[in-house]
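Researcher: If convenient, please comment on what follows.
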Amino acid sequence: MGALGWIVAGGLAMSAIALVGSVTLLLKPATLDRLLLPLVAFSAGSLIGGAFFHMMPAAIDTGSNVLGVCVAVVAGFTVFFVL
């Protein structure tokens, strides 16, 4: 498969993944109320995790100690988990 095929397949797959959220419109209100809090927590955790992992290379490039940066990230995740 050429590059164009991979691009089209990836675009279709991303579109299908994005449309998964529309399934919530088909759920009963009781089921949606039961699932809403875990889904919001999952999305918030994904955003926080993404922010941490995207900022790690920038923190390491500043000349900081790599071990210190990694320990700070693990400590941050642990504090959020405990909270």
